[in-house]
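User: hey, got a sec? need Saccharopine dehydrogenase folded
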Amino acid sequence: MKNPVLLLGGSGVVGSRVARTLRRLQPELPLVLAGRDGAKAAAVAAEVGGPTTAIVVDLSREDLGLEPVAAFSAVVTLLKDPWLNSLKYAQGRGLAYLSFASFAFEIGPELAHYVQGPERAPILMLGHVFGGIGTLAALHFAREFLKRVESIALAGVVDPDDQGGPASQADFERLVQQFPSALIRHDGLWRWVEGQDAVREIVDVTGVKRQGQALPLLDVVSLAAATDAKSLRVDFAARESTGQGPSTELIVEIAGEGHDGERKQVRVELVDDDVYARLSAHGAALATERLLGLTGEPAPAPGLYHPESLLEPGQVLRRLQELGVRVRRVVS
Ligand SMILES: NC(=O)c1ccc[n+]([C@@H]2O[C@H](COP(=O)([O-])OP(=O)(O)OC[C@H]3O[C@@H](n4cnc5c(N)ncnc54)[C@H](OP(=O)(O)O)[C@@H]3O)[C@@H](O)[C@H]2O)c1
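Assistant: Yep! Here you go:
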């Protein structure tokens, strides 16, 4: 049996959902949910069921406050670790590492750890919208419909009160106060934008126009490297509650030249009936499975990865639908 996966922040709004998705995908996989509050983590572990335990961690320590005999198969960091001790811990032990909460303007320290020890461990940078689902969906439908991609715009549309847990709220406060700019690519030029340049009109799945705000997420850099697209952005918008429980929309809009040589516009809507943490958690769980080599392919070698370099987009779309995500496409 594999050593357990250490889910740092596994008791949080996203972390508990990553644990639940992983339990559904891999009933026998041992999980350890970690946070500062052991009782909270134990309660979530009991609810997740199967071989799931809880542990208290201290991220300010290089050993994370864990016993020297503790052994894991991967470290999945579902929070912003301001010390990066979790990355050093994983690299030092040759364990796969998943980074989930770094915006595009703050990945420098993680990159430097990789540069210092590229042979030590696989590191997946997953600071993408909805845990990489937006990038993977865009790549899947771009390949299906287009031979040349000109632009990709991703949008998350969420309930007005869906702000994630305290860690998510702290991340957004850090963003607004310290670096209120978003990275976009416009006509081939990389730009950090704010104010009106960072605003975009988004049409939600009911056809209502919403005001979206661009965010500095990693999808734009992934998609710029993986496609020909000269214009790229990711926005978030809120809408009124549906009144029928939480719901999250991912809207993917792609334009370019179709396989028949005609100009095409593709719009794809993915809808999940939960807070946005669940779609994100599905992304993190599918990536964790892949990092562990549990999807029929060998575990990745040490290296630096983005979701599209590890996961096959079509397979991810199929598995998301098995997990209850609805997909609707419009091509014109
Ligand atoms: N890439 C994406 O798609 C994506 C999507 C959504 C969210 N996120 C990111 O995911 C993170 C978690 O969001 P959330 O909404 O789940 O927040 P949350 O509910 O506050 O969860 C945070 C988790 O981390 C633990 N934690 C917080 N500070 C800690 C510390 N210093 N040491 C050890 N454990 C600590 C918490 O447990 P204790 O309180 O017991 O310590 C809890 O388990 C945020 O950073 C957010 O930005 C990323």
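Quick note: Residues 5-129+280-311 form a domain with the Rossmann fold fold (CATH 3.40.50.720). Let me know if you need anything else on Saccharopine dehydrogenase.
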